[in-house]
């Protein structure tokens, strides 16, 4: 049982690490602010969840588990608010997104 | 496994810092700092497990709170700093 | 003492009990005092209502969360593939979509779900429409088909 949990958490860690690296690459690679925001989105939803779930699996029952759940909930609840606030203020700041149609014409 | 995770997190934090330095707009920098903050939360949690001190999770929790509030605060400052653009705001 | 205040009290009590981990009489009394203080502040601010404590949704939320998690995993995979394929693969676009939901809270849930799924970000909500930036035209089409909107409408009923 112990071994199984360790194995699942290792899989979670590897997947989370891959996702987080992709997000990091995306934030460097994408052409403008609005597209970079999507890249930051993947590191904040699934990658964070996977890493924290992996930690939960090796934590065992107890207060530590509850605190990890709390951190996960908090990040999941606040990250859309932060992204929305960022997008809205960028829009107010007259930042123009690069659009596909303009690009191809 | 935890060490690998910590190294990956640090790498991504360096990437976020690079984006914060490159810019070009102020919003890119804020986005990068936000990303850096959430990765710091994860790094603190992972470090807590790595050193066998789960008390670190309290710090991670508080850091997550501070990170969110500081981002919103900085954004409000930049969103409404130019009062000519938005009517009805002091 | 309505049900919203009681629900806030329960949430705060659970938070205190599990975060402290020390159960001596002094700390429990301090916890009770701070919970009372927070509830007094919230009552004074008038923020205890069915918007901050959406109890009326609690029976339908688990099914919605299950659907949302599935959606988030799907779109995460999509965006990761796009990241590694590079700038040629993306087709960013901006569009205004109408919101069918009536209540404020359903609108907020809809917009936040859009932002939470990578690949689409809700940028602005005006009366009954939401301005969306999307990483590909494909994911914009998916939103336009209204699968997510239907799921949120189911919450509202």
Supply database-style keywords.
heterotrimer, A: 105 residues, mainly alpha, elongated, B: 90 residues, 3 helices, flat, disordered C terminus
Condensed summary:
Chain A has 105 residues and is mainly alpha-helical.
Description of the structure:
The complex is a heterotrimer of chains A (105), B (90) and C (157). Chain A is an all-alpha fold and 105 residues long. Chain A is built from 4 helices and no strands. The longest helix of chain A has 30 residues. The model of chain A has no long low-confidence stretch (mean pLDDT 84). Chain B has 90 residues and is mainly alpha-helical. Chain B has one domain. Chain B contains 3 helices and no strands. In chain B, helix 1 runs antiparallel to helix 2 and helix 2 runs antiparallel to helix 3. The longest helix of chain B has 25 residues. The C terminus of chain B is likely disordered. In chain C, helix 1 packs antiparallel against helix 2 and helix 4 runs antiparallel to helix 6. Chain C has 2 domains: 43 residues; 99 residues, no CATH class. In chain C, a hairpin with a 2-residue loop joins strand 2 and strand 3. Chain C has a 3-stranded antiparallel beta sheet. Chain C is built from 6 helices and 3 strands. Chains A and B meet through helix 1, helix 2 and helix 3 of A and helix 1, helix 2 and helix 3 of B. Chain A: It comes from Paraglaciecola arctica BSs20135. Chain A: Keywords: Membrane, Transmembrane, Transmembrane helix. Chain A: This is Sodium:proton antiporter.
List the helices and strands and how they pair.
The complex is a heterotrimer of chains A (105), B (90) and C (157).
Chain A: H1 2-29, H2 33-59, H3 63-92, H4 100-104
Chain B: H1 2-22, H2 26-50, H3 56-79
Chain C: H1 3-20, H2 25-45, H3 61-85, E1 93-98, H4 104-116, E2 120-126, E3 129-134, H5 137-145, H6 147-156
Helix pairs in contact in C: 1-2, 4-6
